[in-house]
Design goal:
Blueprint: H1 2-5, H2 20-40, H3 47-67, H4 70-100, H5 113-125, H6 136-142
Length: 171
């Protein structure tokens, strides 16, 4: 699901065909330029207008920081809406399986959705099938990636040179 929506981006309402994230960088540069002009013009301009300008720039920076992750938030929203459909399908399959195998009574109320996931948990651990339940933490520990073992070849060959003491340089 995440690969399907990974390329989605929020479109700008002002510039057709341009993603909002590409405009955010330009807007951020313009706000920082305005802040620099305000700092340079503090002695020239009226102090009331300069403080209002600083307030507006800080508010713009806050809004821009909120919009920075907008593409990721849209992608997450689209994935959640797709996952809701898949979870509903999973719930229907589990109910169909449990009703066909007499695991749920026919007067089972559809109002309690958490019951379905309790049965799913029991089905996945094997408890529902009459097996001894498997502890999921044990499976996680057993399937945890092990530290890799590197086998290296030891190529330390002893040199066949005799001791260097017999040479005249070392006497």
């Amino acid at each position: 699901i995440s690969d399907e929506y990974a390329t989605y981006s929020v479109a700008s309402r002002t510039a057709y065909g341009v993603a909002l994230t590409s405009l955010l960088y330009e807007i951020k540069n313009q706000v920082s330029t305005a802040e620099i002009y305000l700092q340079l013009g503090e002695s020239i301009y009226d102090q009331e207008y300069v403080t209002k300008g600083h307030i507006y720039c800080s508010e713009l920076n806050k809004l821009l920081s909120l919009l920075e992750g907008c593409d990721e938030k849209v992608q997450q929203y689209l994935m959640i809406s797709k996952m809701n459909y898949n979870l509903q399908q999973l719930k229907n399959l589990i109910e169909e399986f449990s009703l066909s195998n007499n695991l749920l009574s026919y007067n089972y109320s559809d109002n309690n959705d958490s019951e379905v996931f309790k049965f799913l948990y029991q089905l996945l651990t094997g408890e529902l099938l009459g097996w001894e339940p498997v502890n999921p933490e044990f499976i996680l520990k057993e399937n945890a990636p092990k530290k890799p073992v590197f086998i290296t070849k030891n190529n330390n060959r002893r040199t066949q040179l005799k001791s260097l003491q017999h040479l005249p340089l070392f006497n």
